[in-house]
């Protein structure tokens, strides 16, 4: 089953480069937790504790119980290409973001997610994580304005060899601007490498090089990763740890849970064909793929 899924994602990725982008020359080589304030007797009513990382989240917010799963949404391109499931039309994407906003969802960062999964740091009950793979330029021209409109957080996993090289991919200047504005930039290897198909040495090479490039460009530590094609194995997880990553995401369907393993977290794939009803089900029901 995993082999079939891998083939599907390879096929979809190839379609995305040809169909979702404006360029046709792109070549991809596959190769301390916030704790509630303790008030001594006599009991004094606590003031709301505002979290800088999660706007609007305070001690009046409904808290998510510890040990639960969280929907991590997986997007790629915000554009239109008939028949291409990874190209989400702008109108549909905005409708989805508006639904999240209107229904009281909080977009949390990967750091928030990591702290919740590993340290039981409180997060809102209606938390959701928004992620994008690859780093298409429409993440800046189409997605970024919409997320700013709703004051939402998100993460883009970037293929570093394509930055500043191909017109349909993000530039380093765009990465810097978005990273400073609440759109976290993280690693997706150098050449969209399938870690399951390459040696341990090459795994470390692509993981270290992409990490080093992003850290130099953004002047921050890169902690998080998404597997191209969803391809990983025991060696890949070991390589991620050796390279200094803290958490990684697969393309396996479902909500993210500590039970998945912190280096093999699941995500909820959002397809261009998803109706509003399907989208609502995916973000409200952990058992919906």
Automatic annotation (TrEMBL):
MF terms per GO, please?
hydrolase activity, acting on carbon-nitrogen (but not peptide) bonds
Major location (coarse): secreted
User: SUPFAM superfamilies recorded for this chain?
Assistant: Glycoside hydrolase/deacetylase
Cross-referenced Pfam families:
Polysacc_deac_1
The alphabetized list of GO BP terms reads: carbohydrate metabolic process
Q: Output the superkingdom of the source species.
A: Bacteria
Q: Does the keyword Phosphoprotein apply?
A: no
GO annotation, cellular component aspect: extracellular region
Matching CDD domains, A to Z?
CE4_NodB_like_5s_6s (cd10918)
Keyword terms: Signal
Q: Where is the signal peptide?
A: 1-23
Subcellular compartments: Secreted
Q: Which InterPro entries match?
A: Glyco_hydro/deAcase_b/a-brl, NODB_dom, Polysacch_Deacetylase
Residue span(s) of domain NodB homology: 126-289
Name of the protein in question: NodB homology domain-containing protein
Protein source organism: Clostridium estertheticum subsp. estertheticum
